[in-house]
Amino acid sequence: MMLNEGASAAPIPIPCAPLAIVWHSRTGAAQAMAHAAAEGAGCHAALIACDQAGADDLLRARGYLFVVPENLGSLSGAMKEMFDRLYYPLLGRIEGRGFATLIAAGSDGRGAQAQIERIVTGWRLRRVAAPLIVNLGAQTAEAILAPKTVPAPALAQCRALGAALGEGLALGVF
């Protein structure tokens, strides 16, 4: 499954969806993963491109799934900008809410994961699912810049995580 970066960039308006799936993608991998998670969560999720995410979007949600590529061993710049922009408006207002992460990586993914962990520690979010890092093995400049296709088994894991988070938030489990 390969989606273009510009496709579905605007939030999918689902009033009071308990799960906000906030994503950024350059080559399509993280976008495909976010869409798979949203498909799994169904009506329990709002899919929001990080450049479109506002404080009100995150305040309406009861939990979060952050979906991002790892770029140069860290969080993508666009997702980092979203956290920078919303950090103080949300500080002290979303404590205790659950979160999980999906990382599209060329080899490792732990740098982006660690950076998200540091940021959401300040918001006092609580992890409700183990990180899912999809290693796509891109190691050359050409492979790194090329559009990505996420393997079906990885997309199935993203769908399952979205379903579990959406249902868990809807039921008040987390």
Q: What general outline do the C-alpha atoms trace? A: globular
- Please name the CATH topology: Rossmann fold
Can you summarize the main beta sheet?
A: 7 strands, mixed
Total discrete domains: 1
The residue fraction in helices comes out at: 40-55%
pLDDT averaged residue by residue: 91
Give the strand content.
Answer: 15-25%
* Known CATH architecture: 3-Layer(aba) Sandwich
The arrangement of helices and strands along the chain is EHEHEEHEHEEHH
Spatial separation of the terminal alpha carbons? 30 Å
- Rounded to an integer in angstroms, the radius of gyration calculated over CA atoms is 15 Å
- Contiguous helical run count: 6
Which consecutive residue ranges, at least 5 long each, have pLDDT under 50? Answer: 1-8
- Protein structure class: alpha/beta
**Any idea what the CATH superfamily is called?**
Flavodoxin domain
Please write the CATH class name: Alpha Beta
Give me the count of strands.
7
